[in-house]
Design goal:
Layout: H1 3-29, H2 34-40, E1 44-53, H3 66-76, E2 89-101, E3 105-108, H4 110-113, E4 118-122, E5 128-130, E6 132-137, E7 142-146, E8 168-173, E9 181-192, H5 196-199, E10 207-210, E11 222-224, E12 230-237, E13 248-252, H6 253-266, E14 272-273, E15 276-280, H7 283-288, E16 297-302, H8 307-311, E17 318-322, E18 325-326, H9 332-339, E19 345-352, E20 355-362, E21 364-365, H10 371-376, E22 389-393, H11 396-402, E23 408-413, H12 416-421, E24 428-432, E25 435-436, H13 440-447, E26 455-462, E27 465-472
Antiparallel strand pairs: 1-2, 1-4, 2-3, 3-7, 4-5, 6-7, 8-9, 8-11, 9-10, 10-13, 11-12, 12-13, 14-21, 15-16, 16-17, 17-18, 17-19, 19-20, 22-23, 23-24, 24-25, 24-26, 26-27
Length: 475
């Protein structure tokens, strides 16, 4: 054997040995979930609902066989995109949940049981019970159920401050009706704010993002740390296909604990309310106010008669901290305000005219705010099958500050029409199809007469610059 051949052979043997040893060492440091699953699985339940599905729930894009679609829905379960149209029928869906009290209290998602005529809980030992809804909260997507049983296994809540990016987590639920399926992964982000057009609930939840393979049917199930503590409630997935692509979102345990305690005590949830219209801080505004980076929540307007006005907030304030918590962007503020108990006093740190100030405010009650006060915000619901966005009217203060005579500010971009046009939250629509917009009535009126299938000009102001966009209403 030549010396060269011998050295190559020796090198190969060393590499194989090193690879094998490395794999063995790595395997020793990978978590073993068996004990965790054995301890927690008995408290995980399957939640099945029966409800009447009306023709208003359409699925316009489906071109297949009606019977096949119905069978698919029965298997798929959970929440589906807007657009189903099967006529009025008896429907079913499923999700997951977990037991938090030995006498039968169960946590799941609001969207799992929303509209349910009948709820059946299947335990790990296959016993079945009818459940009643103690309370349900759409804004946090949480619900509390009760079954008539005693001595049930439970799982404990952990602490959100202990959740770190990169830590191992585990989910147990019923994806695609496959009960008690276990999936593991890591936390990939903490404090993720999702646009309302994704969550459908507003910015009242700051999610734990994971790469756990969460699929339809997992909703309402727990997200565990390695100590077997619930650190989140699985709620959302982000996917174009409907299946997992490694982006899943769980409601953190601090929000879940707050909401569930309120539901257990009173059946409903109270949230703090501030009374300001806000937007993200732009780079231009950051430069003006000498901020190193665009951060905080920019106050566009202060609602007359609201808590913020009483405390002395002004338009153009930039809120940096709320009761000690950093406000990274405008989506952070509703989350932190919502967690505040109405009537409590909080301290808010802000920048006003380039100076750092602190203001103390008595928190209002979001649900108790009168409908008239809410209307003063000028909000309008998304216009179905048209622009696919929500807007607010500009106050006279905003018009003067921006140098505008009219306009409507976009607060949510929901539909494909607005998304395709490139419209963004914070844009100000000045005119649509040649007509100036100054009120919600203007938009509602012109919406009824917009031509379908033709390009329409839209004049928009963004960051002080006016540009024309083109939209086309779908037929």
């Amino acid at each position: 054997m030549s010396k060269v051949l011998f050295l190559n052979l020796l090198r190969s043997v060393i590499l194989i040995f090193a690879f094998t040893l490395s794999a063995q060492v790595s395997a020793q440091f990978l978590p073993d979930f068996t004990e965790l699953v054995e301890k927690t699985a008995p408290a995980i339940v399957n939640v099945r609902i029966r409800s009447t599905v009306s023709a208003s729930d359409r699925f316009d894009d489906f071109e297949g066989d009606r019977q096949e679609l119905e069978e698919f829905l029965e298997f798929f379960g959970d929440r589906f995109p807007d657009g189903f149209d099967l006529g009025e029928r008896e429907g079913g869906s499923l999700g997951s949940g977990f037991i938090i009290a030995e006498d039968g209290y169960i946590v799941t998602n609001h969207h799992v049981i929303d509209g349910a005529d009948d709820i059946t809980i299947t335990l790990n030992d296959q016993r079945q019970f009818k459940a009643e809804i103690i309370g349900s909260d759409q804004r946090s997507d949480l619900a509390l159920l009760k079954i008539d049983a005693e001595g049930l296994p439970t799982v404990p809540f952990g602490h959100v401050e202990d959740v770190k990016v990169g830590q191992w987590v585990l989910a147990i639920g019923s994806p695609f009706n496959l009960s008690h399926s276990v999936a593991a992964g890591i936390v990939s982000f903490v404090g993720r704010s999702l646009p309302p057009q994704i969550t459908g609930q507003g910015n009242y939840v700051s999610f734990i993002q994971t790469d756990v393979a969460i699929n339809p049917g997992h909703s309402g199930g727990p997200l565990f740390n390695l100590a077997g503590e619930v650190i989140g409630v699985n709620s959302q997935i982000y996917s174009n296909s409907g299946g997992s692509i490694g982006l899943s979102f769980a409601i953190p345990v601090d929000i879940a604990s707050n909401v569930i305690n309120q539901l257990m005590q009173s059946g409903n949830v109270s949230r703090g309310w501030m009374g300001v219209a806000i937007a993200d801080v732009t780079q231009e505004q950051a430069n003006i106010y000498n901020l190193a980076t665009p951060k905080g929540a920019f106050v566009n307007d202060v609602l007359p008669g609201g808590p913020a006005e009483a405390a002395g907030f002004q338009a153009e304030d930039i809120i940096l901290r709320y009761n000690g918590d950093e406000i990274r962007n405008s989506a952070d503020l509703p989350y932190h305000v919502g967690l505040s108990m109405p009537g409590s006093e909080v301290e808010v740190e802000l920048i006003r005219n380039g100076r750092l100030e602190n203001i103390r405010m008595l928190v209002g009650d979001l649900d108790a705010a009168s409908s008239q006060q809410q209307l003063q915000l000028g909000s309008i619901a998304p216009i179905e099958n048209s622009l696919g966005l929500s807007v607010t009217e500009l106050s006279e203060t905003e018009k003067q500050r921006l140098g505008l005579e009219h306009g409507l500010r976009i607060t949510e971009v929901i539909g494909q029409v607005a998304q395709r046009a490139g419209l963004q939250v914070g844009d100000i629509i000045l005119s649509l199809n040649g007509r100036n917009l100054d009120s919600l009535a203007d938009l509602s009126e012109i919406n009824n007469s917009l031509p379908v299938g033709s390009p329409l000009p839209l004049l928009v102001e963004r960051d002080g610059q006016q540009s024309f966009f083109t939209i086309m209403i779908d037929g």
